[in-house]
Design goal:
By secondary structure, the protein is α/β, with parallel strands linked by helices. The protein contains 42 helices and 23 strands. Helix 25 runs antiparallel to helix 26 and helix 29 packs antiparallel against helix 30. The longest helix is centred in the N-terminal third of the chain and has 28 residues. It is globular, with a radius of gyration of 33 Å. InterPro entries: DNA_helicase_UvrD-like_C, DNA_helicase_UvrD/REP, P-loop_NTPase, PDDEXK-like_dom_sf, UvrD-like_ATP-bd.
Length: 1054
C-alpha cells in the first residue's frame, strides 16, 4: 500500500495535519520537507517554529535543514524523494536571497527548539522581582532530589505554624508518625507535581459528591461494556440454571444485572462464579460454587456456557475488572485524610518555591508551570500576543510523547488560531512508539487530537505505512507479532493503542530473519553466551544489544570483555561500578576522613598498593588507631609480610606530604596530586584517564557548591556512566535506541520483569470528561488500600502494561535485517508475568516445549573470588612543591573555581551587556555559586577588575557591537556532542569565533608570556570550533581569544 499521496498532501501549507508515522517511515524527512515548504512561503524564517523534545532531536532536524540548503547549491539528485527536498530547499534559498535572510550565514534564524526551550522563552519575559538574570535550571537528579527533600523537611517543620498544625500532624499520624516515610512520599509527589498541582486544587476536586459522581460514572461506563458482551453469551437458560444454586447471592440473579453502581454487587457474584482465582474461565464447578452433585443438570448448562467463552479474552478481562471498581461511598475518615494530605502538599509546593527563590534556581517542571501560567487562557498577556503575532506555523515532532502540561501550553499558544487564518499546525509522531510514561507523556492526547482536535483546530489525520528501514521479512514478522499483542480497541485513558501495519519498501527476496533463543530458568550465563556467539558472527555489521534494564547486562558485559569484543556502551555502565572509580572513591573518603578505617583498608588493597589479605587482616586488628599512621610504625610493619611492608611504606611516602599540606590547596587539587603520586598519568589507560577526569570534575563541582562530602559525591556519580569508545557493536537501553537503526538487533532479558512503581501518598486521575478521581494511600491502621486507591493503581498498571507493548515494538523495529530474541523461562517453563516474553508467549510458546527447563545452568553457580590487581613494582613518589618554589597564589589556587564562576558569571554579564555591577549583586551571585565568605571580598575585587578591563579595552566597542548575526553561548552539535561557543558574529562577511578566557596572569608573568601561553593552550580548541562551524557557515572564519585579565583580543591562526 503506497502512501505517497499522503506524503504529498502533508506538504499542503494551507492545512493543519496530524501525521501518524510508524517506525522506519521517514518521519524526519517529511518534517524537514514541511518545514522547508513553510519557509518558502513565509515573510520571515522566525514565523515558522519547529519543536521537539530533546536537544539531540533539535540538532538532528536543524542539521537536516541546513544540509538540504547546502545541497540545493549543487546538482539535483536522482532519487525522487531527494528531489522533493532539493526543490523545496532551492525555493527557500531563493526567498532567503530575495528578502536578505542570509540563512546559511545566520542559521540561528531557523527556529527549531525543544518545548522546554519555548517555556524558557516565555518565562524569561517574567523575571523574578529584584533579579537580573534568569534562575539556574537544576537538571541533575541528585540536586532535584536534594531540594525536594529539603522542601519536605521544611513542610514537616510547619507543624508548629498556626493554621498548618492540624493538617501536618494528622498526615504524619496517618503515616504512623514515620518521619522518613513522610519525607519519601512528599519528595516523590514534588517530583511529579505537574501531574496533580493544576488538578488537585480546582473547584470541587475534594468535594465528596463530585468524587462519588466520578466513581459512579466509571462504574457505569465499565458495566455498560460488560453488559454489551454478556448479552451475547448469557441467555435465559443460563439464569434458570443459576436459580437453583445453593448460594443465595447467585440464585437471586434472575437476569443480567443493570449497568449501574447498584448492580455492581451482582456483577461481582457473576464474576466469582465464572472466573477462577487467576481470572480465567472456569472449567469445573463444585459445591463450593453452589453446585452440589444433585444439581448435575444445572451445572452442565452453566459449564456449556463457560466452555463457549473459552476464546472470549476481551469479555474475560472486562468481567475480571468488575472486582477492581472504585468505591462509590467515601467515608468521613477518607475525606479528612484527603483534605489533610492536599493541604500538606500545598505547603510543600510553597516551601519548594521559597527554596527556589532563595537559591535563585528552578527545575523544568516549574519552568513549564510558569510558562503555562503566563499563557493563562482567559488573560491577554503580552507574551501570548507576541507569540501569536510572531508564529504563523507550528510544527511539533514526537507528538505522542507530549505531557498534559506541555499539551496545555501548546493549546494556549494557539488558542486564537482559526481554521482559515493562514496559520497551520503540523503534529507528527507515532503513538505506537510512546515510551516516556515515566516523564509523564500521555499517548492518549494523540488519540484526543485525532478525535476532537486541539483548541479551535481539527487537523487532518494522515497515516504513513511504508517502512524504508527493515527487510520485508522483518516488517511482516513484526506485523504478525504486534497485531496480536496490541489491543484491538483503543482507550485514551489507559494508553491503549491499536496496531497499524507497515509495508516494506524493499524487494521480497531479502534475507531478513527473526530468531528466538529460549533458556532454562535463570540460565543467564547461557543467555549471555548466546549473545556473545551472535555478536561474533556479525562483527562486520552494525549490531545493537538492547536492554530494558541495565541489570540485564551483569553477565553479558564481562563475557564480551573476556572475548576481547570491542563494544560501545551508551550510558549502560554506571561510573561507580568501575573498579578504578571505586578506588578513587575510597581515596577520596580516606583523604576527607583519616579515621575512615574501611576506606584506608580499601586504599591499601587497591592496585596502587595491593596488600595481600593477610596484611590487611594484621592492620585491621588495631581498631583503636588510624590506619595511615599505622603503616609508618615499625612495630606494626614488622608483623606484615616483607612485600606488604615495602608496599605500605611506599604508599605512606606518596601521601604523607600531601596530607601534611592539606590546608594549602583546594581538596580537588590535593586529590589530583594524590592520584598522580599513586598512579602517574603515563601508567593510566585512555579509559582510566577519562574516568579520572570525570571523577575530578565531580569532586570539583561538589567543592565549588560547598557540598564536599562523600554522600553528594556518590549522588553525582550515580548519574554518570563510564566512558566508552566508538564501535559498530553497541549496547544501550531501548529508550536510547529510539530513532536509530542497526543491521542486527539482539534483545536479551525478555524473561525478566521490570521494577515495580512506587506508591504515591495520593493517587489521582483525570478522565476524558474532566472528572477527577483520587484516593489517599492506606493508613497504618488499614490492612489494605481502599477500592478506589487500588482501582487507580490498576489504571496506572494498565498504562504501564500498554507501554511495555510499545517499548517492545520500538526495540524490534530498530532492525534492518536480523532480530534475535533471548529469554529465560519461569520455573514452570512458561513466561513470567509482566515480561516482554509474556507478550510474545502466544506466538513463541511452541518453542518453550522443546527446551529442557530442568537443565541446570552450572556456570551460574560458579562464583569466583575477585582477582587481586596490583602494580608489580611500586612507583616512586614525586616530591611535592616546597614553600620556596610555591607559585600557587590565591588567583591560581581557586582557578578551577573561577573556571566555573567566570564561565557562568562573566558570560551572563556579556549576554545582557552588563559591565558594571554593585558589590551586593556580585556578592549574592558569588555566594550562590559556592564561594565561602572568607574568599568573597578577594573574588569580588577580581570580578570587578575583569569587567573594568573589558570596558576599557580598545576593542570593546567592536567586540560588543550590536549585530543581527551575534550569538552568545551558541550551541552546535558535532558527532552527537554539544559544542558551545562563547560569542560569534559576522563582520565584513567574516565569521568571528571568540572564546573568553578568564584565567589570571601569574605574578612573575609578562603580558607577552601570558599571551603566548594562552595561544599554545587553546589553539587546538579553536581549531576544533572552526572545523565544527565550517559545516554550518560558508563564510571565512577567524578565531580569537578574549582575555580580560590583560585586556587583549588574541587572534589565533588556525
Amino acid at each position: 500500500m503506497d502512501d505517497q499521496a499522503q506524503r504529498i498532501e502533508a506538504l499542503d501549507t494551507s492545512c493543519s495535519f496530524l501525521i501518524q508515522a510508524p517506525a522506519g517511515s521517514g518521519k524526519t524527512e517529511l518534517l524537514t520537507q514541511r518545514y522547508l515548504k513553510l519557509l518558502s512561503i513565509s515573510d520571515s524564517p522566525e514565523s515558522v517554529l519547529a519543536m521537539t523534545f530533546t536537544k539531540k532531536a533539535v540538532s538532528e532536524l536543524k542539521a537536516r535543514v541546513i544540509d538540504a540548503l547546502k545541497s540545493a547549491q549543487g546538482d539535483r539528485p536522482d532519487l525522487a524523494h531527494k528531489q522533493i527536498t532539493y526543490d523545496l530547499a532551492s525555493a527557500v534559498l531563493a526567498r532567503s536571497e530575495a528578502f536578505d535572510w542570509y540563512l546559511l550565514e545566520m542559521p540561528q534564524r531557523l527556529k527549531i527548539s525543544t518545548i522546554d526551550g519555548l517555556s524558557n522563552l516565555i518565562t524569561s519575559r517574567y523575571p523574578q522581582p529584584g533579579t537580573w538574570i534568569n534562575k539556574k535550571i537544576i537538571t541533575q537528579t541528585w540536586q532535584q532530589e536534594a531540594i525536594y527533600l529539603q522542601a519536605a523537611k521544611q513542610t514537616l517543620l510547619s507543624i508548629d505554624v498556626e493554621g498548618f498544625t492540624q493538617s501536618v500532624s494528622q498526615t504524619l499520624l496517618y503515616l504512623d508518625n514515620n518521619v522518613n516515610r513522610f519525607y519519601q512520599l512528599i519528595t516523590y509527589m514534588l517530583s511529579k507535581r505537574d501531574q496533580w498541582l493544576n488538578k488537585l486544587y480546582i473547584k470541587d476536586a475534594l468535594d465528596v459528591q463530585s468524587l462519588k459522581d466520578s466513581a459512579a460514572n466509571i462504574i457505569t461506563q465499565h458495566l455498560e461494556r460488560v453488559l454489551a458482551s454478556a448479552k451475547i453469551h448469557f441467555e435465559a437458560d443460563f439464569f434458570t440454571a443459576l436459580s437453583d444454586n445453593t448460594q443465595a447471592d447467585i440464585s437471586t440473579i434472575e437476569n443480567l444485572p443493570e449497568a449501574t453502581p447498584a448492580g455492581l454487587p451482582q456483577w461481582k457474584y457473576l464474576a466469582d462464579l465464572c472466573l477462577t482465582g487467576k481470572g480465567e474461565w472456569r472449567k469445573t464447578l463444585t459445591k463450593k460454587n453452589g453446585f452440589p452433585a444433585e444439581l448435575k443438570a444445572q451445572k452442565k448448562v452453566v459449564l456449556e456456557v463457560l466452555k463457549g467463552l473459552s476464546g472470549q479474552t476481551e469479555f474475560m478481562l472486562l468481567l475480571n475488572e468488575v472486582n477492581t471498581m472504585p468505591d462509590v461511598d467515601f467515608d468521613t475518615a477518607q475525606m479528612i485524610a484527603l483534605k489533610n494530605i492536599a493541604q500538606v502538599l500545598k505547603i510543600a509546593v510553597a516551601q519548594l518555591n521559597v527554596l527556589f527563590d532563595e537559591q535563585q534556581s528552578t527545575d523544568f517542571i516549574q519552568v513549564a508551570l510558569d510558562a503555562d501560567q503566563a499563557l493563562v487562557e482567559h488573560e491577554t498577556t503580552d507574551i501570548a500576543l507576541f507569540l501569536d503575532y510572531k508564529i504563523q506555523h507550528l510544527l511539533i515532532d514526537e507528538f505522542q510523547d507530549t505531557s498534559s502540561t506541555q499539551f496545555a501550553l501548546i493549546e494556549k499558544l494557539i488558542i486564537n488560531w482559526q481554521k482559515d487564518d493562514a496559520k497551520t499546525l503540523f503534529l507528527v509522531g507515532d503513538p505506537m512508539q510512546s515510551i516516556y510514561l515515566f516523564r509523564q507523556s500521555q499517548v492518549g492526547l494523540f488519540l484526543q487530537v485525532k478525535e476532537v482536535g486541539i483548541a479551535n483546530l481539527h487537523p487532518t489525520f494522515l497515516k504513513l505505512t511504508t517502512n524504508f528501514r527493515s527487510d520485508q521479512v522483518i516488517v511482516e514478522e513484526n506485523n504478525k507479532y504486534f497485531s496480536s499483542i496490541f489491543p484491538q480497541i483503543e482507550n485514551a485513558q489507559v494508553g491503549a493503542i491499536s496496531y497499524s501495519t507497515s509495508v516494506a519498501n524493499g524487494a521480497a527476496d531479502q534475507q531478513g530473519k527473526v530468531e528466538f533463543h529460549p533458556f532454562a530458568h535463570k540460565a543467564y550465563v547461557q543467555e549471555a553466551q548466546q549473545v556473545l556467539s551472535i555478536v561474533q558472527q556479525n562483527l562486520d555489521k552494525s549490531v545493537a544489544i538492547l536492554i530494558r534494564n541495565r541489570s540485564h547486562l551483569n553477565e553479558i558485559v564481562p563475557m564480551l570483555k573476556a572475548a576481547d569484543i570491542v563494544f560501545e556502551a551508551l550510558k549502560t555502565a554506571p561510573l561507580n561500578k568501575e573498579s578504578f572509580a571505586r578506588d578513587l572513591i575510597s581515596l577520596t573518603r580516606g583523604l576527607l576522613d583519616l579515621g575512615d578505617k574501611l576506606a584506608w583498608l580499601a586504599i591499601l588493597r587497591a592496585p596502587w598498593c595491593g596488600l595481600l589479605l593477610e596484611d590487611i587482616l594484621q592492620l585491621s586488628k588495631h581498631s583503636d588507631k588510624i590506619i595511615f599512621e599505622l603503616i609508618y610504625e615499625p612495630s606494626v610493619l614488622k608483623d606484615l609480610t616483607k612485600d606488604g611492608s615495602t608496599r605500605a611504606q611506599s604508599l605512606y611516602a606518596s601521601l604523607t606530604t600531601i596530607i601534611d599540606n592539606y590546608s594549602r590547596f583546594s581538596f580537588v587539587q590535593m586529590l589530583e596530586f594524590a592520584i598522580e603520586q599513586l598512579c602517574p598519568q603515563q601508567s593510566l589507560s585512555e579509559h582510566k584517564t577519562m574516568i579520572k577526569r570525570q571523577f575530578l570534575n565531580v569532586v570539583h563541582e561538589c567543592e565549588v557548591l560547598g557540598q564536599l562530602n562523600i554522600k553528594t559525591i556518590n549522588q553525582q556519580l550515580d548519574e554518570l556512566y563510564a566512558p566508552s569508545i566508538s564501535s559498530n557493536i553497541k549496547i544501550m537501553t531501548i529508550h536510547q535506541a529510539k530513532g536509530l537503526e542497526f543491521d542486527v538487533v539482539i534483545i536479551p532479558g525478555l524473561g525478566r520483569a521490570p521494577r515495580a512503581n512506587q506508591s504515591a501518598i495520593i493517587h489521582l486521575h483525570e478522565f476524558s470528561d474532566r472528572s477527577l478521581l483520587l484516593a489517599p494511600i492506606k493508613s497504618y491502621q488499614q490492612t489494605k488500600p481502599s477500592h478506589t486507591y487500588r482501582y487507580l493503581q490498576k489504571v496506572e498498571s494498565k498504562q504501564g502494561h500498554f507501554e511495555s507493548m510499545r517499548l517492545l515494538y520500538v526495540a524490534m523495529t530498530r532492525a534492518k535485517s536480523n532480530i534475535h530474541l533471548l529469554a529465560t523461562l519461569s520455573k514452570s517453563g512458561k513466561a513470567s508475568e509482566n515480561t516482554f516474553l509474556k507478550l510474545l508467549e502466544p506466538a513463541l510458546k511452541h518453542q518453550f516445549e522443546v527446551l529442557d527447563n530442568t537443565a541446570k545452568d552450572e556456570a551460574a553457580d560458579l562464583i569466583e573470588a575477585p582477582k587481586l590487581e596490583r602494580y608489580q613494582t611500586m612507583l616512586s613518589a614525586n616530591p611535592i612543591v616546597t614553600d620556596a618554589h610555591e607559585t600557587i597564589e590565591f588567583n591560581n589556587s581557586i582557578n578551577m573555581g573561577y573556571k566555573s564562576l567566570l564561565g557562568t558569571f562573566i558570560h551572563q554579564c556579556l549576554e545582557i551587556d552588563v559591565f558594571e555591577l554593585s558589590n551586593s549583586i556580585i556578592d549574592v551571585r558569588l555566594l550562590e555559586l559556592g564561594f565561602s565568605l572568607e574568599n568573597l571580598a578577594h573574588a569580588r575585587v577580581h570580578i570587578v577588575q575583569l569587567l573594568k578591563n573589558t570596558r576599557q579595552d580598545v576593542n570593546f566597542d567592536w567586540l560588543f557591537k550590536h549585530r543581527q548575526s551575534t550569538q552568545v553561548e551558541a550551541e552546535f552539535m558535532h558527532q552527537g556532542k554539544s559544542v558551545i561557543i562563547d560569542r560569534l558574529f559576522i563582520d565584513d562577511n567574516i565569521l568571528w569565533v571568540v572564546d573568553f578566557k578568564t584565567a589570571d596572569r601569574s605574578a612573575d608573568e609578562t603580558d607577552e608570556i601570558y599571551v603566548k601561553r594562552q595561544q599554545i593552550k587553546h589553539t587546538k580548541q579553536l581549531k576544533f570550533y572552526k572545523e565544527v562551524l565550517s559545516h554550518v557557515y560558508n563564510n571565512e572564519i577567524k578565531c580569537a581569544l578574549y582575555c580580560p585579565a590583560v585586556s587583549q583580543l588574541i587572534e589565533i591562526k588556525v
